[in-house]
Amino acid sequence: MEVKELQPALVWEAFDEITKVPRPSKHEEQIRAYLLDYAKKHSIEAKTDKVGNVVMSKPATPGREKAPVVVLQSHMDMVAEKNSDVEHDFSKDPIQTYIDGDWVKAKGTTLGADNGIGMAAALAALTDAEIEHGPLEALFTVNEEIGLEGAENLGEGMISGKILINLDSEDDGEIFIGCAGGIDTTAVFSYKRSFSPDNFSYYKVSITGLLGGHSGGDIHLGRANANKVIARFIWECSNKWDIEVSSFKGGNLRNAIPREAEAVFGIHESHKDSICEFLNKYADEIKNEYKGVEPSMKIDIEEVSKPEFCIDSKTSLTLIRALYSAPHGVVSMSKDIEGLVETSTNLAAVKMEGEDKIVVTTSQRSSLESRKNDIAGQVEAHFQLAGAEVSHSDGYPGWAPNVESEIMKISADAYEELFGVKPQIKAIHAGLECGLFLTKNPNLDMVSFGPTMRDVHSPDEKLLIPTVDKFWKHLCLVLKKISEV
């Protein structure tokens, strides 16, 4: 069976089409064209703003014209992550989906169910003639995965609804009414190139097979950080031998826990016989530390040709020490909501740029604005001590829970009516666009829900098929109940 043949048909057909349209963050031209063509094909009113957000509008079911306008909100872009052994160009290649039991997966890349399935549900709501609802606005934002830029720059007058349903959550049976705010901190190391010593042997050490995952939703799971694992190994080597580091790269996106990293470094040739033995010992220790957490971890070392240049010795040691000691993971847990991460930081990516720069990207999250700024400040101070030039993004606000929310009550009642169990009302450590919408319209009543997904922001991303039908039925009943208010 193919994905487009699953039920509910309208949702899965739209999702299947969406997976065939390239849409990495900051490159939403093709998916925006698809949305506008979809609107034209189905005679749906559509408009865009200057940053590329799209809004489609559908009149109320006859007799429900006086119901409040509801905004169905999702984002166009997807995280573009793939395994290192997979050939895939996210700018032009379709996602290769397949069904594995109860799950929809992709072949070696992110699936894009975050937030393709939310988009598909919104499109289905716009075209399904059977559901009952008041006036609808479907908002599709750009660049959510890179700083929530579409939501932050939403054009004036694009939406008129006072109720917003965010379709970007990842757990069936859970209704979200709050999220963390976030900020990015970038450290830039400047270095001089030095000729690689002739009397050194050079090696590439790499780590692959880590689970990675969402830096908000998965940060509490204690998964290994590829950058930290490699930096720790080279730091331990530097305590035994003189070393020269030629290159270091790891991770990719600010909101993904890095799954892969590699570095090229050299040690004096007199220690050549010791390095592989030391790595094997180190690998055994790391695998034991992450036993039961990282079942597919793989650490390799191979001898390579002498590189022409290395990073100057002072900067290379400073970089390794800074990466090894940099904070990563959960900083504190919420005092108000049991089990919710309050504050965290992600050592996301290390990239060499040009011939004299090394860029370290990190991301901080917190449900408290002051703690968000505090952990960002700690990361800044850490890298300043290492001599790096540090800067911050503008950041985005959190979404404070409103336990008196009317749409929350309607959504909870609808779920219980359909499935006979009360949904969990929760806040999430990941960032949602709702906080930014609230700054523009403090009177918005908002909620977020969706089907079950796992391992988003990684090539292991998967979507649980039975929960998509539940998600769709839930959304339809919520819209009906709102129109009856």
* Sheet having the most strands: 6 strands, mixed
Task: Please report the number of helical segments.
Answer: 11
Strand order of the largest sheet: 1-2-6-3-7-21
Distance between the termini: 41 Å
How many beta-strand segments? Answer: 23
The overall average pLDDT, rounded, is 95
Class by alpha and beta content: alpha+beta
Beta-strand percentage?
Answer: 25-35%
Low-confidence stretches: none
Radius of gyration: 24 Å
Looking at the structure, what is the overall shape?
elongated
Helix content range: 25-40%
In short:
The chain is α+β, with helices and mostly antiparallel strands.
What report would you give on this structure?
The protein is α+β, with helices and mostly antiparallel strands and 485 residues long. It has eleven helices and 23 strands. The chain has helices spanning 9-19, 29-41, 113-127, 149-152, 226-238, 272-289, 313-325, 369-385, 406-419, 434-440, 465-484, and strands at 45-48, 54-58, 70-75, 97-100, 103-106, 136-141, 163-166, 174-179, 181-190, 193-195, 200-208, 243-250, 261-268, 298-304, 309-311, 329-333, 341-353, 357-366, 389-392, 424-428, 445-448, 453-454, 462-464. Strands 1-2-6-3-7-21 form a six-stranded mixed beta sheet. Strands 16-17-18-9-19 form a five-stranded antiparallel beta sheet, covered by helices on one side. Strands 4-5-23-22 form a four-stranded antiparallel beta sheet. It starts with 8 loop residues before the first helix and ends with a helix. The model has no long low-confidence stretch (mean pLDDT 95).
